[in-house]
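Recap quiz, item 2
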Amino acid sequence: MGYTLTEKILMRNTGKSSLQAGEFLTVKVDRVMVHDLFAPFVIEKFREMDFAKVWAPDKIVFVYDHLVPTSYSEDSRHHKIADGFAAEQGIKAVHRSDGVCHQLMPELKYVIPGQVVFGTDSHTTTYGAVGALATGIGYTEMAAIFGAGELWIKVPPTLKFNINGNLPEGVFAKDLILRIIGDIGADGATYKAMEFGGTTIKGLSIASRMTLSNMAVEAGAKFGVIEPDEKTYEFSGIDGDYRNLRSDPDAGYEKVYAYEASALSPLVACPSNVDNIKGVEEMRGARIDQGFIGSCTNGRLEDLEIAARILKGRKIAPYTKLVVTPASRSIYAEAVRKGIIGILVEAGAIVNPPACGLCCGRSGGIVADGERVIAANNRNFLGRMGGPKSEIFLASPATVAASALEGKIVDPRIYFS
Amino acid sequence: MGMTLGEKILARASGKIMVKPGEIITAKVDLCMTNDATTHLSIDIFEQKLKAEKVFDPQKVVLIIDHNVPAESAQTAEVHKKMRQFSQKHHLPFYEGAGICHQIMVEDFIVPGQLIVAADSHTCAYGGLGALGTGVGCTDFTSVLSTGELWLMVPETLKFDLEGNFKSGIYARDLILKIIGDIGANGANYKIMEFGGSAVKKLTLDDRIVLCNMAVEAGAKSGLIEPDEQVVDYVQAAGRQVRDLFKSDEDAVYEMIYRYTLDELEPMVAQPHFVDNVVPISKIGEVTIDQGFIGSCNNGRIEELRVAAQILKGQKIDPLVKLLISPASKRVFRQALDEGLIDIFVAGGAMVLNPNCSVCWGGCQGVIGEGETLISTGTRNFKGRAGHADSRVYLASAATVAASALTGKITDPRRFVR
Amino acid sequence: MRKEFAGRVWRLGDDIDTDIIIPTQYLALETVEDMKKYVFNPLRPDLAELIRPGDIIVAGKNFGCGSSREQAAEILAALKLSCIIAKSYARIFYRNAFNNGLLLLENNELYDLCQEGDDLSVNLENRQVLLGERSFSVASVPDDLWQMLEAGGLVPLMRKRNAQ
């Protein structure tokens, strides 16, 4: 029997000529990412473990994004601590206000196809979109990697998702991943690798693929991988023979799911679970107080472009807010050049500098009891963006933009022919 | 005996032919405005204590959310929700996320000769358009809300005669800091600061707002500048009608007259922790900064953004410095986008924020931490204003802030200004 | 690390995510000690004061899903719970728990049959959990993870290794 993409990357990494799901391995870590919120904890554990020097300063990337800009007086303490450690250890890759960690890692080519990467954040699975094995860990394990450069993992079985056909107008990668999570449940892929393939996937931009891999963790997955292809190599700026970075035709999947893209429609994840999926037709008309477009899930240029397309020449509904937080500095710059930021500002959106913003729920548009947010990010857990009496719906940027215009949940397809 | 500009406005507002300093009058306000710093308190007093049913005139009451945007806590969100509900109930003009209250008032409402009362101290800013704005607390504000009237004592006026020209790298911001440093935080206590003299005609509207906006930091009740064609053109272009174009009489009596020659100015800096603790930049010495801020109702308009962009163009700020830039309103943001200024800020490593009070207010965005130093174009530098109690805030011009962000220390902008 | 112990039950439902265990707004508090009083705050704000060392949390499926925030595991460990017994766990949380010396056990039926306040006895030698007369079986803890629990977590384990 052949091997899955996940198994091949692990074999390449460990030098093993065979392995199987369920096996324990120690992997050599290619790169790690630590963001500002947890950096002080990683550093503290590193010291408690009696390590003196990191194993490879050039393999560590610090990104400040959860506490950018600062909202409370204790926030910059995290930055000062991380800055100090980076200087002490010779870590040069420190991004202080360039955007969300998971956007920057592939965008700045810190992660390329075939690598094994860990981050102190659950949405590290995002990098699977560029054909890397990437997953989130806690700060204690990150400290152990800092010292030793390796980590034990259990080889996960792979669930294959074959998606074929064309997505209808007004339906996007976000709707596809919400459909999948709704079908398999919030623990439907626990301990597994989700592998996305098929003609639809091949037709998706890297940005849209990142939306899929990003949310794999919301189904409990360890990895969310997509075979690298020409788009990936162009995006990652690499040459070389990576042809073996694909699943064998006879690879052993634990289960194979098939989806026909043309049968998909806009969806919302209703409060307060990501797998609480309903069609937008069913929720249409429900009042919303605020929209949010941003995050590592849906804060990229194509997401802002779609929002601008819908908002152009129009204004957000009275007593309704739209908060927009582009995912990186270069995306923001490009959006400025293309007039997208201007369109959003004119429509009444609150446009923020690139960072996690409201997604992580620390600041950036917290809502009151009884209020509702429709958001393009990845989580709608109880109390995430306000008190326990506020509600969050997840949806695509198109659905969010369309809904912000009316102050209610709207089927975005009315804006697409 | 003639009247000053301020006395004429108050006379008109109180329906009298003439008023004199020291007199108590009851004036009808032309407009009143409140923002998310205290409106929830006013609403509580209005609804629960006064048990009032309606505001005096829905077209003259403006509610603006600008201090904590976007909201950083559920408590703030509750305050905002209350304001929305009140606006909806009483059909009031309402703004959220559109910019700083005083900037919106200047762009959308102010006309020379008006009397405006707001629950915010920098209401004196409207003097730049020849309107008398004054800040009040939420109790006074609530009383205005229900009656449309306010009692006040007619203040004395201090005259500031300005002549000459700003040299390169020196701005209205430096002038007002110098004035406040000279007369002190109580130097204009309960007075109107009237800026005049031969230099005034050459001042842009932005310059005039910069001067009047900080009058309250010298204790003044308001700041005023005689409106001229520049003001008329601006207000008419915004679709508003000019009614009263008051000027101070030749024989108006001022309590005191100060003279300033703009050519003599240096870039000025207000040191921690008082606005009047002002020194010329040459006396500052080596001060490392953690954060810079360009924005606020004082210095967040297109003119300041242009100056900053000129200094930052093609450069990158010091990697350990955070530079936060917040255009004062949606309009200013749009204009900065059109002029390519935002491109420069983003390329330079700054964080461009949505239009709001932001770092100046120190409540939700760019809050500084223990031991940190901020240089800011905001209005105040009291201890703990921008964040942690143990932090330091310096006030300076946009040019000085931009220059300092490049080097990481407080820097004379004349090094960079062409 | 005791192989036999008893504890009082606190019962929580399905999909208890790490935002519920410790909301984001408290993550910049300096220490886990400071955060302890906000545990489960959005769902059960009363629990923080009621939980005593030795108590047991019994939960439904997918316990600890969501964010990788290790503070969720560290706080529960700091509360000195005997263990958590859930139908299933999210994977990042699973690792974080053991890394902090917190024992996680799995059983599919116990949750539906127990009530808050019940007393449970756990015997890890014969892998049984006793609720009154009824017994439920749990899987044995893998050796490596048991070693970590005995050491008190990954930090003490790494220190031992670095000392060698």
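The mean pLDDT of chain B is 96.
Chain B touches chain A through 48 residues (CB under 8 Å).
End of item.
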